[in-house]
Request: fold
Amino acid sequence: MSRPRVIVVGAGVAGLSAAFRLQQQGCVVTVLEADDHVGGKTASIRRDGFVLNTGATVLADSYTAMRTLAREAGVGDRLVAPPAVIGVVRDDRVHELRAAGLGAIVDFARTPLLSPRSKLRLLRTFVDLLRSRAKVGFDRVEVSAVLDTESVGTYCDRKLDAEIRDHLLGPVLGGIYVVDGPSLSVLALWFTIWKVLLGGLLGYRGGLDFFARALADRLDVQTSSRVTAVTRDGRGAVVAWEGPDGPRSERVDGVVLTVPAPRVAEIFPELDPSVGRLLGDALEPANYVSIRFALSRRPAGRSVLTVAGTGQLGSLATISYEHQLSPGSAPEGKGLIGVLLYHEWVTPRWDWTDEELVAQALNDLERIEPGIGEHVEFTQVDRWSPAALRAVPGSHRTIAELDRLLDPADSVQLAGDYRGMQSVNGSIVSGETAARNLGWTLFGGRT
Ligand SMILES: Cc1cc2nc3c(=O)[nH]c(=O)nc-3n(C[C@H](O)[C@H](O)[C@H](O)COP(=O)(O)OP(=O)(O)OC[C@H]3O[C@@H](n4cnc5c(N)ncnc54)[C@H](O)[C@@H]3O)c2cc1C
Reply:
């Protein structure tokens, strides 16, 4: 029997993970990527001895799919344990808290971030937190969806208080999802506690693109190749694309499409209309701007990630100290800070120039890092639209509905971060699931 031929559209982590798994199963795989580089939202660039991530930065110890694949691709040793200290901004002061272990309890008991009364109130979440544990995860969307019942703001009004909402849960969720924290589904809260905070963070040597590059080195990846259409053809599909040598097309046995949700129907018009409606209208996109500040010296703080609630630090949601998270990302003695600007702040200012955005972000950053402007060697601005889908109440139930509508035996599989809780690991899991489904169809369950 000849080996099945598969095209994977997109060389982000979802596409590369799908391609790697399909190749292991015996398929002949080509990845087509529109950009001139791999990685998608995990791409990095190199300049003057710095390695600058253009999108994602923070990984969690719970990213087991990523760790396993990194090991199989021979780059497991690039993953390291960074200091797990998180800063939370309140009134222009950063409260540093250890995120894991006994130290987390000690720091939380001592911190003046919350009043003793609010700290005690947090005990009211205990039962809900324990109940959520078995339901949150990077797959099994229909199981998590039962937790998608209300917003974090409503939950705080019902069970906690405004101080916890504005100075703990708002900043932590806002900092991680880059949209107003209290507007998010309470599912995002349970997911973040179990899958991001309690296990601790995961660092990596050099830029985050090490993962995508390692997978791509083991695959046939064609960059600067924008797929324009996928059409069904019997049991397979025809893929058309614009490559460096002009337009091309090929009939293949299977396809994995990993383009962002709002773009799927443009490329694959035969998509079931109810799926198209969910991807196009029912899930709300968010826009992110990330700015990296390459610094001539390292700031003094211990935190690897500082988060600020909406309006606490002007435009800023997250400040990541990348020289700590990613050893080797800045030359010896120099520093690298990345900031993410709140979706709600940046969307109405999308036409601002890079210079205007940098000036505003620097002004806001100076409130917790006074004098930092004098040490900026250069900056890098990246705009992502759509960057993600907002995990507002109901969004996960929509994703579960999408899961029910999509046929796991289809020769065109969809993968990407919109198939679960948005994260690097979630995308990898979605790519591996698509590969498993497609392999099952192509080999009749014989892989
Ligand atoms: C600014 C930012 C910060 C983030 N921070 C974190 C973080 O700290 N931790 C975390 O876990 N997650 C983070 N995320 C989320 C995480 O980066 C993404 O969920 C994940 O990387 C998405 O991977 P993907 O492969 O699904 O999609 P993408 O990375 O978007 O990959 C899709 C690929 O498809 C290509 N493509 C699109 N159209 C076509 C076409 N027509 N033909 C061919 N190719 C095409 C694109 O160029 C892209 O390379 C962040 C995201 C952003 C934007």
